[in-house]
Amino acid sequence: MPLPAGLRALHHADYRRFFSAQLLSQTMNWMQTVAQSWLVLSLTPSPFKLGLIGTLQFAPILLFSIPAGVVADRVAKRRLLVATQAALGGQALALAALSWSGAAEYWHVAVLAFAAGLAGVADAPARQALVAEMVGRADVGSAVALNSASFNAARVVGPAVGGLLIARFGVAPAFVLNVAGVAVSILVLQRLEAGGTARARTGASVLHGIREGLEYARRAPEILLALGLLFVVSICVFNFTIYVPLVVRTVLRLGAEGFGFLMAALGVGAVTGALGVGALGARRPPLGLMFGSAAGACAGLLALGAARAFWMAALTLFVTGLFGIVLVASCNTAMQLLAPDELRGRIMSLYTLVWGGVFPIGAFIVGLVSEHWGVSTALLVNGTGGLVIVAALGAWWRRRR
Fold it and tell me: Within its chain, how far is the Cα of 110 from the centroid?
């Protein structure tokens, strides 16, 4: 029986197994994200120090994304993913032991966040390229949408369950469950038929491989535009692990359950947006959709800064999540379809660089502004700044045309 365009990737047996394991693992990882933020706030009341944890976790993406893309093009991607998942499982196990023993200190969380970032930077381009190999070019759009839906369905369930779990049993069980999710992911990866074929060695250096990928991207204006719009939502919008706990604690005066449910509202909106992009199938997303969703996500930050009631914050996060993930999934789909097979790891490493690599800068700005002027001011600054950048990108694109 034929599936709708947005679900066609599920025709592929390897991808079905990969998708199921990924959904479970990401749900557990979101529980850990909630637990880690809550652990930091229990160790220090400083918004700046909470933002610094995000900076440390995503700094490796900023530093090493492009070399990681070259590696992803040169090695068997499945083996690389097994190694990175094992490292992430070890990080979660260390957090579980520290929090359960009561010995956790702020510097422990900071070091382990940086370690998770190192594993994640190697994981991301290999994962993107392996998915494209599993489903083929015709179903890349469907796979990207399903991956986004998986990530954001996990964002719905993980924080909601994590918030309730933390309120009753503390943060340690959330870290333990993430270890279990990683173990399932490794088992499934080892059973995949697709291995993520390594590109034939040419004797060229890593630096030559980096230059080759950058030069291709420089000559493709559609890729540059996608990266520019992605930059906007990455640096301005998707700092929710900092925005939301600060809004919950300092504006709405709620506890862990409120944090979990607001993150879930964000995830519901994001799943809705991802499935909408999936309906486009193998077509490149329209530019009007990409510009409109970027502007809508930035405007959502302005509304969240004005929210003073739980229902208003939840509605605003739903809308912001919807617009934000429409833009992110659209950029991912466009870049997957524009990238030649032999350069896909490197082109998608640019996506990873912009999507996660500028987060440390955004997290630092949010933490610093919130520390001195409050989270509402930080939301106003980032929402306004994002709209200005979107307008500037629109003017640049019109001049090119």
Answer: 19
Q: Where are the beta strands (DSSP E) in 33-192?
A: none
Nearest to 18 by CA among 155, 284, 196, 159: 196
Stronger pLDDT, 83 or 2, i.e. the higher one: 83
Which listed CATH number (2.60.210.10, 3.40.1400.10, 3.40.50.1370, 1.20.1250.20) goes with 5-193+204-400? 1.20.1250.20
For residue 382, what are the contacts with CB-CB under 8 A and spacing of at least 6?
Answer: 235, 236, 237, 239, 298, 301, 362, 365, 366
Mean pLDDT for the stretch of residues 38-55: 83
pLDDT of residue 34: 84
Q: Which of 156, 29, 25 is nearest to 92 (CA)?
A: 29
Q: Which of 367, 251, 257 is nearest to 316 (CA)?
A: 251
DSSP state of 357: I
Rounded to whole angstroms, what are the CA distances from 313 to 293, 305, 308, 363?
Answer: 19, 9, 7, 20
Query: Hey, how many other C-beta atoms are within 10 angstroms of the C-beta on 291?
Result: 18
Please provide the DSSP assignment of 300-328 as one string.
HHHHHHH--SHHHHHHHHHHHHHHHHHHH
pLDDT attached to residue 3:
56
Q: 281 — alpha (psi -120 to 50), left (phi > 0) or beta? A: left
- The candidate with the shortest Cα–Cα distance to 50, out of 111, 122, 106, 2, is 106
Non-local (6+) Cβ contacts of 281 within 8 A are 5, 6, 8, 141, 142
- Rounded Cα distance between 85 and 33, Å, is 16
Helix/strand/coil (H, E, C) string of 57-95? HHHHHHHHHHHHHHHHHHCCHHHHHHHHHHHHHHHHHHH
Contact yes or no for 377/369 (Cβ under 8 A): yes
- Cβ contact 152:270 at 8 Å: yes
Q: What is the arithmetic mean of pLDDT over 77-90? A: 91
CB 9 within 8 A of CB 137: no
* CA count, 13 A, side-chain hemisphere, 263: 37
Q: What is the pTM of this model?
A: 0.73
DSSP 341: G
Closest CA to 123 of 75, 174, 82, 74: 82
pLDDT greater than 80 at residue 281: no
